[in-house]
Write a structure and sequence with these properties.
Two copies of one chain form a homodimer.
Chain A (H helix, E strand, L loop, with lengths): L14 H11 L3 E3 L6 E3 L1 H20 L3 E2 L5 E3 H4 L3 H7 L5 E4 L2 E3 L6 E3 L4 E8 L4 H11 L8 E10 L13 E11 L2 H22 L5 E4 L11 E8 L5 E11 L1 H5 L3 E3 L5 E3 L1 E8 L1 H10 L16 E5 L4 H20 L4 E3 L7 H10 L4 E5 L1 H6 L1 E6 L5 E5 L3 H26 L1 E3 L3 H9 L3 E5 L4 H11 L2 E6 L11 E2 L6 E2 L2 E5 L3
Parallel strand pairs in A: 3-9, 17-18, 17-19, 22-23
Antiparallel strand pairs in A: 1-2, 4-8, 5-8, 6-7, 9-10, 10-16, 11-12, 11-24, 12-13, 13-16, 14-15, 19-20, 20-21, 23-27, 24-27, 25-26
Helix pairs in contact in A: 2-6
């Protein structure tokens, strides 16, 4: 189980390998025996649980409730919404039988051909279809609206190339599915939930994001508008971290969900859906971590403070144990998750490296000299700097330090992100700049054809048409860098995960 | 959306129909478009979330951590453990393809025959196989043990006859999977977790349970011992509510999971697994509820207190609103979930019936006279009794009342359960008593054959060999009521869900 830190590839050598190494060595996740499906290990899952809990609280504060819909979707449901089927029906896991039987040759089990399903079932790639089929029975009148439901679930998309957390066949996510009486209310909901995602990314994950609307090419299959939060990784690639869709009446029409409005007329229901997934783990890891391992925002760190004793004999250890016990109790009372690691089968140096690798935000060390002086050595993971602090009031000191680290890693990520936002005027300039990575703000004529051409020639996509301005003139009209046609404003290009 | 209470079948008329009606009318769950799979509606899911949260806290207090393993299991894994495959491989959802394509006739999509999987994948009916295949890489030495992991997940068993919550094709559950260096430690873990389940059932759900060990016939497929908690429903049928399995080294051998023990020798790892599911919702509903609807233990009630105003005009309503606002704030501060329902589109009588149906433990009503007298009418759902209480200190009064209700419904269920436990001496007596329902304590010779005969002739199964004694002489040896052969102690028989 010993993890050799020296095996962690440096970011500058191979960013992609560094990421893979880190996910494995920090015990976050690993590949399973099933192609493209991951095992989320306890340490990785503990981070995901914090993400879940905090997001769930935010959903509830904005009036949403949770529910649960079936894992399997009848094949025919997917074809109801014309665009949706194009986007999702193709690469998915298909259940065709419901029984195995003993193999006639006595070796294992085989599929029982007599247990073939009349209609095949699909493992949900997303749940709009099954949910809107259910909503038909829930909605009769405007009094039944809005429905503000969220679901925490696993979904499956048969991806050809998978990477832990970033793109896996099965992943965990939440999907909100809301139903509204008016177009305006649904549009507001879609934008509101994007705001929740942006706030969560920035305040909880310490990941700055660009918020905006997708171009038609990048829209969710079946949506009228897709809103997105886009984060910037250290290698200059963008990571779409959450999306919120205004679905119009498309799914209501596909599943015949009508209601009697206040004017006593039948009308189709307006819809949104929005989701974030275990992909957020990838954003978290790639935004903050360094060549020593994970750097975690304190708000999401499973262990916020680790305490390590250094001692020559049992007598010293006992004295340190005694001193630390009160400290641990006080941290817990303050709601700070703390681990006192006085296991004797690992040397302190090994422990230090391991907790750095795991991204524990604050490390406290007490040795013989500290015991004498009533001090501890405090190391903060984000800067790796150490200082010696009196034990008197150290709990409050650490609490403030955790806040400071949370803010510092956000500011650091923000500044790194901002230096990676540049404007270009010409397509040549664009081609040159896109090679260097980052978000490139450029004029585009608004057509799918031009977007497609740019993608083919440069591998860059329009991440979004941003809500906010990032560089001077973002919102000023201009001319498309490719075609010279009029452009309403600059849009955000990047190569993306 | 108006729910007609009069449509709720009476328990005495048709218990089974009463249950189905209640699940639907209380907005807990409903059938989905996919055979045997349910939709858990927001109100039902809110109860499940409380169950989850509270159980999860108990798992963590006993040293467990959460993780996540794949939904899909390679078909061949199931055959590795000989008994396991017999128990689980037969009725399950089989994924055979990974792509759909447009139908040549232009109507919808069909399975793409070219996307056939080399090896079929099974949607997990339980995860021992995929988890022990994973543990092989996690365990080298006794230092890596114990592994105390739990997973919250959906599982699927292709049941022919389904009932909401009690038996569904897909259900939600948690499955603990632990790995240990010694037989003793694993056995202790299996018993410890059964104790956690029993405590949860009795303290949180207010459902008294009999704890014990299963006979060989009723054992989990692949276990050496299965421990169980058995609850008694109001119709005299037992409901197995949670099980904990001592798996010996069966799965370690099937997946070759060995470790170097303290004596530096290779040894197979010892295992347990344990689970409870959304079936607990069925136990909760059927133990406490009555002909007016749900009765929920306050600890698990999504809304613990509902406040309803009765007013003749806006002026009165405004005065009540004002008075209630402070109360609501105080309840929230005390951690009591409260809903103030001053919506004006439903009459108070409708609201009363609806909150009774939903099992809200305490209802507070304020009318014009109360406003004058500074009082409220307090109704408790368990007894349906009302009294008038001063607003002064009403929050503390309600807090105590919630505790009292929690205790009262447990005592009521306990006494109902206890009157349903009887001893019998002869098989004739047994056949007569089993018709009346309840737990029947009887002597049995310990053979699967006798157990099978009893099951065939009476539809009763051995629920468990109990840990505790329930009637005098339970633990005294005797002779089997069927064969006259020696019996070590009385065992618990019942007809069961």
């Amino acid at each position: 189980m010993a993890k050799e830190l020296k095996d962690l590839t440096k970011r500058s050598e191979n960013y992609s390998q560094w990421y893979n190494d880190l996910v494995i060595k920090a015990d976050l996740a690993e590949q399973s025996a099933v192609r493209g499906c991951m095992v989320i290990k306890p340490y990785g899952y503990a981070i995901w649980e914090k993400i879940q809990r905090q997001l769930d609280d935010m959903f509830k504060e904005t009036g949403h409730v949770n529910a649960y819909f079936p894992l399997l979707i009848p094949k025919s449901f997917l074809s109801r919404e014309a665009e949706h089927v194009e986007g999702f029906a193709k690469e998915c896991a298909v259940v065709t039988h419901h029984r195995l039987k003993n193999s006639p040759d006595g070796k294992g089990v085989i599929v029982d051909p007599e247990a073939k399903l009349e209609e095949e079932l699909i493992i949900r790639p997303t749940s709009e279809t099954i949910i809107w089929n259910t909503y038909r029975n829930w909605i009769n009148s405007y009094r039944d609206l809005p429905i503000l439901v969220n679901q925490w679930a696993n979904v499956m998309r048969w991806e050809m190339r998978t990477r832990l957390f970033l793109r896996t066949a099965e992943f965990l996510w939440q999907e909100g599915h809301t139903a509204h009486a008016t177009r305006q209310e649904a549009e507001e909901e879609a934008v509101r939930m994007l705001g929740v995602y942006a706030e969560f990314a920035e305040k909880h994950m310490a990941v700055p994001v660009i918020t905006g609307v997708k171009s038609a090419n990048e829209r969710f299959a079946g949506a009228l508008d897709t809103y997105t939060i886009e984060a910037m990784m250290q290698d200059g690639k963008a990571l779409q971290s959450g999306t919120s869709h205004f679905l119009g009446q498309n799914f209501a029409k596909a599943f015949d969900v009508q209601f009697v409005n206040k004017e006593n007329k039948m009308e189709y229901v307006w819809a949104t859906s929005w989701g974030v997934s275990t992909r957020l783990m990838g954003a978290l890891i790639m935004t903050h971590s360094d060549d020593n391992g994970l750097v975690l925002p304190p708000v999401l760190a499973p262990i916020q403070v680790v305490i390590v004793p250094i001692y020559k004999n049992d007598e010293q250890l006992n004295l340190i144990n005694e001193k630390v016990a009160g400290m641990v109790a006080k941290f817990k009372k303050m709601g700070i998750s703390v681990k006192y690691d006085n296991t004797d089968n690992k040397r302190p140096g090994f422990k230090f490296a391991d907790y750095e690798l795991k991204g524990v935000p604050v490390r406290l060390v007490m040795g013989a000299r500290d015991l004498e002086n009533n001090t501890m050595e405090v190391m903060r993971r984000d800067t790796l700097t150490k200082e010696t602090v009196s034990c008197e009031g150290i709990e409050e000191y650490v609490q403030n330090l955790l806040d400071e680290i949370q803010e510092n890693i956000y500011q650091k990520a923000l500044s790194a992100r901002n230096t990676r936002i540049r404007s270009v005027e010409t397509y040549d300039e664009f081609k040159e700049e896109i090679e260097k990575g980052g978000f490139i703000m450029a004029h585009w004529d608004g057509t799918p054809e031009t977007e497609e051409k740019i993608k083919e020639e440069t591998k860059a996509t329009i991440r979004c048409i941003p809500f906010d301005t990032f560089v001077e003139g973002d919102k000023t009209p201009g001319t498309c860098m490719v075609t010279g046609k009029p452009s309403e404003c600059r849009v955000v290009f990047a190569r993306a995960y």
